[in-house]
């Protein structure tokens, strides 16, 4: 499979294919003319010796400092070197691949004024699985993700470090292995490589895809818990949701009704004295649905950004103009990432509440902590603590980053988006939600076992079977961290999704 880049048609699915399945990448040949004309416009303006930001001037607060045409190439190299200030842990490999792909795609759009060789170099890194080492800390989402993208750009000039064939290597060493020579950057190319939102976007594309998957899994886990707690599906009746028709709410209610249909457990308590269930069961459509609607909004932002031109200045070669603007500003992504964090945190929050009910014998009617030998054995008591710990971290991380603007670059960049920080928080919250759902699935599966010989619905029994193929029934205490990690790995596969 080969993904062709043209700056206009890249999809979320294709990004996942490149980032996580190592699909090959190629530059669409039809874009070469646009890229060439964009480059020619830069060279033409360079000869006119007029002030052009980052081409014949310094950058940031130094935008009023003139740079002579014969220093243009040196300026571009210096931009890459000076902006390589990232620190901390390095981005995961799949995120790095997404970042490199997205940067190549926006340059391929033909508004950045770079040579085709620059785009092809980024593509070669992907196809040869040479991954720049990009530190997590350093971007404020102002003139784009300057520091993270500079660490990518370092590789193009033979500097920095990469991961290649499972080893960390000096860039020059890795490039020699594939006979790829470093580039000498021409006017504007260094600026075009570092100026954009693609580091934030790389994190967000994969976080979004995972979030959509987790929304589905949260509904499956919720349905298992409802049945295990002998809850009523009446709250999911389509008539209730038709009179409050939020799209996510209607969708979740419909799915829960389908998942619970035909359960023997449900039939065993039909006509009981309980009038209605606790909110964490009864209000799953309202809570999960609202989270789904937020995730849908995030998708609309991300899809618009994927094929956008986000560097500065932009080269409108058709009009023979190079215009300075602010497409690098990460505010759309910052707000979307904060929204994603809140949505995923809420899913973890309501999941933890269902776990608490499953473990409380006075609420569930099941053995305490889901073990028949409570006292001598603790069952899932401290697995609940793991869920609560993840939820507690999420509550801190859900504070919006987008409202915490701090001026940089001598007040030139006097309002920054903090989009990169917002994306990193969403990425961590996504992982914590995985943990919370893993605990809920383990507890719900255990509860269904304790209700035997009664059977749940066909789809929920299928999910239970998938879990039991991986994690055995908890008959006596054992180190549950292994079960939780195994369950998290199962959540990343398609097995449980096939039960929906």
TrEMBL record:
Pathway of action: Amino-acid degradation; L-histidine degradation into L-glutamate; N-formimidoyl-L-glutamate from L-histidine: step 1/3
CDD domains: PAL-HAL (cd00332)
Entry's Gene Ontology BP terms: L-histidine catabolic process to glutamate and formamide; L-histidine catabolic process to glutamate and formate
EC number(s) given by UniProt: 4.3.1.3
Primary location class: cytoplasm
Catalytic activity, reaction form: L-histidine = trans-urocanate + NH4(+)
Cross-link (5-imidazolinone (Ala-Gly)): 142-144
PTM section of the record: Contains an active site 4-methylidene-imidazol-5-one (MIO), which is formed autocatalytically by cyclization and dehydration of residues Ala-Ser-Gly.
Entry keyword set: Cytoplasm, Histidine metabolism, Lyase
GO cellular component terms, semicolon-separated: cytoplasm
Subcellular location: Cytoplasm
Recorded GO MF terms: histidine ammonia-lyase activity
Gene3D superfamilies to which the protein is assigned, alphabetical: Fumarase/aspartase (Central domain), Fumarase/aspartase (N-terminal domain)
Top-level division of the source organism's lineage: Bacteria
Matches recorded under PROSITE patterns: PAL_HISTIDASE (PS00488)
Modified residues (2,3-didehydroalanine (Ser)): 143
Any Pfam family the entry gives: Lyase_aromatic
The keyword Lyase belongs to this UniProt entry's keyword annotation: yes
Coiled coil: none
Stated family: Belongs to the PAL/histidase family.
NCBIfam families: hutH (TIGR01225), PRK09367.1 (NF006871)
Protein's UniProt name: Histidine ammonia-lyase
Gene: hutH
């Amino acid at each position: 499979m080969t993904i062709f880049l043209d700056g206009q048609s890249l999809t979320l699915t294709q990004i996942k294919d490149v980032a996580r399945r190592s699909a090959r990448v190629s530059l669409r040949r039809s874009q070469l003319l646009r890229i060439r004309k964009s480059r020619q416009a830069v060279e033409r303006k360079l000869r006119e010796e007029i002030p052009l930001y980052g081409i014949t001037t310094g950058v940031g607060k130094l935008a009023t400092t003139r740079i002579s045409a014969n220093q243009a190439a040196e300026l571009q190299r210096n931009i890459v070197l000076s902006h390589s200030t990232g620190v901390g842990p390095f981005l995961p490999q799949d995120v790095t691949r997404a970042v490199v792909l997205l940067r190549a795609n926006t340059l391929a759009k033909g508004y950045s004024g770079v040579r085709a060789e620059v785009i092809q170099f980024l593509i070669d890194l992907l196809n040869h699985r040479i991954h720049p080492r990009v530190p997590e800390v350093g971007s404020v989402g102002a003139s784009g993700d300057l520091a993270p993208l500079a660490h990518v750009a370092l590789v193009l000039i033979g500097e920095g470090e990469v991961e290649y064939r499972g080893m960390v290597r000096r860039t020059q060493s890795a490039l020699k292995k594939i006979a790829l020579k470093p580039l000498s950057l021409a006017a504007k190319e260094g600026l075009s490589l570092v100026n954009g939102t693609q580091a934030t976007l790389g994190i967000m594309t994969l976080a979004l895809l995972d979030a959509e998957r987790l929304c589905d899994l949260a509904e499956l886990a919720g349905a298992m818990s409802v049945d295990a707690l002998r809850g009523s599906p009446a709250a999911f009746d389509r008539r209730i949701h038709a009179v409050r028709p939020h799209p996510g709410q209607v969708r979740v209610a419909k799915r829960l009704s389908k998942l619970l249909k035909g359960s023997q457990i449900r039939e065993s308590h039909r006509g009981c004295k309980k009038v209605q269930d606790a909110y964490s069961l009864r209000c799953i459509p309202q809570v999960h649905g609202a989270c789904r609607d937020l995730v849908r909004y995030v998708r609309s932002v991300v899809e618009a950004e994927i094929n956008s031109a986000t560097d500065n200045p932009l080269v409108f070669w058709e009009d023979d103009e190079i215009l300075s603007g602010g497409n690098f500003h990460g505010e759309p992504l910052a707000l979307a990432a904060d929204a994603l964090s809140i949505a995923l945190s809420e899913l973890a929050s309501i999941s933890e509440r269902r776990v608490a009910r499953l473990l409380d014998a006075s609420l569930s009617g099941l053995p305490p902590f889901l073990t028949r030998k409570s006292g001598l054995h603790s069952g899932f008591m401290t697995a609940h603590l793991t869920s609560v710990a993840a939820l507690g971290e999420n509550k801190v991380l859900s504070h919006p980053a987008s409202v915490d603007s701090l001026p940089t670059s001598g007040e030139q960049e006097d309002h920054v988006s903090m989009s990169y920080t917002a994306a990193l928080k969403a990425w961590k919250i996504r992982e914590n939600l995985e943990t919370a759902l893993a605990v809920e699935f383990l507890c719900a599966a255990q509860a269904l076992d304790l209700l035997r010989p009664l059977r749940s619905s066909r789809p929920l029994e299928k999910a239970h079977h998938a879990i039991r193929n991986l994690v055995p029934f908890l008959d006596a205490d054992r180190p549950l961290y292994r079960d939780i990690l195994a369950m998290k790995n199962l959540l990343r596969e398609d097995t449980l999704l096939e039960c929906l």
